[in-house]
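Checklist before submission:
- one chain only
- standard amino acids only
- sequence pasted in full

Submission:
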Amino acid sequence: MAQYKMNILENIEPQERLKQLINYSNTVEVDSHVPPIRYYRSGIEMVRMANVYYNEGSLENAYVLYLKFMTLFLEKIRKHPEFNTVPVDVKARNQCKLREILPKAEKLKQQLLEQYKDDYNRYLAEVKHKKDELEKKKKDQTKKGDKSKLRPSDHGIYSIPSIAKVPGSIADVSYPDSLSNIPVTPTPSAPPPPPTTVGSKNRTEDVPMPVIDRSNKPSEISVRERYDTKVLRRVIVPVKVMTLFQAMAQTNTHKNIETCGVLTGKLERNELIITHMIVPKQKGTSDSCMTMNEEEIFDYQDQHNLITIGWIHTHPTQTAFLSSVDLHTHCPYQLLMPEAIAIVCSPKYNETGFFILTPSYGLPFIANCRKTGFHPHPTDPPLFMVADHVRIENNAPLEVLDLRKA
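Returned file contents:
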């Protein structure tokens, strides 16, 4: 989930600072091209991440997500032209979340206001302290008869240098623009033009930048979002993710059929740790993989309080890179959480790639791309890159749920 960071805003009065945060949190838009059910699924993930932030003590992050959730489902989603197609049980579940969140958000609001008051009082005390120091320095210099360092004003009175304020406009708040778009279940990719080697065996170091675009694969994903990220938190990937997934996909791989899975876990000490891998029911071909019964995934995550950290899929006969449709598949993951990764396993070439969309170019480009079906994307500047915020852990535990056998 995108992490919200505010620059130092202690010089803004508490009520105004809170107002700025609320105004930002209310900027949620609904795209009529996106099925409303996707927004409801995205909402589950938003609440899950907000709860994680709350438990970690990141109150601003939690508050922003709670407000976006409330804005989306109390107001914006009702204007969707297909709102009436959302199943009654899905709406009922959403209403339960709203009733749970409303008092929590109000409590957070008061906590933040108290925090902002403390920040503002600390700022005023610091300003006074600096002013007092300057006054004392002026008096000491006057006593010594050294007035050469003091600057006379137009009125013949020695003036004190002004104290620069800390930047405090809303432009100094570093936020992504919106979290109204949807994390979608992976739909891996189709055969590309002649391959170029990408990635190294379960490592992210020294991997050449991918230059291929497997542009011939359909997609039903339509997203509209902008995002710019500064610093990505570390993602811990157990080495078992790759070894177990490829073993589970082996039967499909021998038949030249793609396999996909969802990577979930927890946020702990500002690191995202993959603890569970879910392989959903799916239908695969040589160039696609369609997940089924997605509700099973969401139910399992709810039961175990797991956040979505990324996805994984195979390229049975091709190298490890992101095709054009892989880019569209991954985009909603990264919009919701900038650290979200896409892992591509290439058994034939014995390589694994760990990728993200380039934050400054690839992410907004794909988010605003409306094309579907087989379509090419430009490759310069690159739309995706190696995920260098990944760390492979040899002994990290991993739980695997294979819903195909359920």
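Reviewer check: The mean pLDDT is 78.
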